[in-house]
Every structure is written in C-alpha cells, then in structure tokens.
Amino acid sequence: MDFKDAYVWVNVEFILRGFLMTLEVAAAAIALSFLIGCIAGTARYMRIPAVSPVAAFLVETVRNLPLLLIIFFTKFALPEIGIKLGVAEAAIAALTVFEAAMISEIVRSGLNSIPKGQIEASRSSGLTSFQTLWHIVLPQGLRRMVPPLVSQFISLLKDTSLAVIISLPELMHNANIVIGHNYRTAVPILVLAAILYFAANFTLSLVSRRLETRMA
C-alpha cells in the first residue's frame, strides 16, 4: 500500500473529477426517472385505457432486464437505428429507463396502499377521480414512498459505476486508471472512492429522514 503516492494532488483531482461526473449523471437520471416513473406509476394506478397496459408491458419488460444490457443497448445498438448518443448521454438514458421502471412500481404501490374507504368517501362527497388522486391519495402516498424512493436513488448512484463498461469517466473509471498506473495505490484509492460514495449516499439518507420528518 502506498498512501503517499496515491494521494498526490494529481490523483486526487482526477478522482474528484470522476466523482463529479458520477454526481452529474446520477442527478440527471434521478430527475428524469422520477418524472417518468411517477407518470407511468400513476397511469397504471388510474388504469387509464390504452395507456396503462402499454406502461405495464414496458415496465415489466425493463424490470426483467439487467442494467448492463440496457447500457450496452443505448451505447451500441441505438446508433444502428440512427440514434447516436455520447457516453454520458447513453449512461443517463440507460439509467433513466431502468430506474423509471423501478420507481413506477414504487409509486403504484404507494398509491395502492391508501385505504379504499378514503377513496370511496371522497368520491361520494363529490370529488372527481383526479381531485381524489391529487388531494387524498397523493399526499398520503408520497409519505410512504419516500424511504423506498431514496433507497432506489442510492442504488442509482451506485449503479453509475456500471457505465465504466462504456468508458464513462466516472469515479470508478478514473480510480481504475490511477490504480493501473501504480498497483500499490489500489487500497488507498479504493478507500477514497468508498468514502466519496458513502458521503453522497449518506447525504441522500439524511435528506430522506428530513423529508419524512416534515411530511409526518
């Protein structure tokens, strides 16, 4: 183990640049997958004709595919049909598609967890289906969704490391390059990478707890 050579500024700066790429890709994928997942999950919950069956088919298909396959598909298969994406864009697209499928199930389950009696009472009081969803179901469902959603976001952030397979210059990609130059730096560099992952994911956990407290 060579901590002195591992933690020279050139290496640390290179690792931090990879970490920044990890955060950027994760942030973009989280925002997009949350939006798409909420729409798909709500459509399935509302059982919208034509939309709900299609959403269910796509969600179940994606959920049963490995993320690595989807990453390969976005980077190497889409160009065959004329859709060319950069490395970062391909990683974001793959993560978005995969995580949106997972999030849609979280959203659907959260909405379905609301007692039917409350829904029937709101409908009998004159509220429309949309008003019932907006005023009764969503506020309660969101409280129950926070923990699993944050867990999914944490998984997403860690899954960005799979994009190393398409040479995305993220944290693990850059860590591997540093280690490749001097194998004696492997332990300290991996320790640094672990600390950075922990810091990001622990921050998400703290945000989750704060949200749960405020929504309680």
TrEMBL record:
Coiled coil (UniProt feature): none
PROSITE patterns for the chain: ABC_TM1 (PS50928)
Cell compartments where the protein resides: Cell membrane
Main location: membrane
Keyword NADP included in the entry's annotation: no
Keyword Membrane set for record: yes
The entry's keywords: Amino-acid transport, Cell membrane, Membrane, Transmembrane, Transmembrane helix, Transport
Pfam families cross-referenced by the UniProt entry: BPD_transp_1 (PF00528)
NCBIfam families assigned to the protein according to its UniProt record, in alphabetical order: HEQRo_perm_3TM (TIGR01726)
Name this polypeptide is given: Amino acid ABC transporter permease
Origin species: Cohnella zeiphila
Lineage: Bacteria, Bacillati, Bacillota, Bacilli, Bacillales
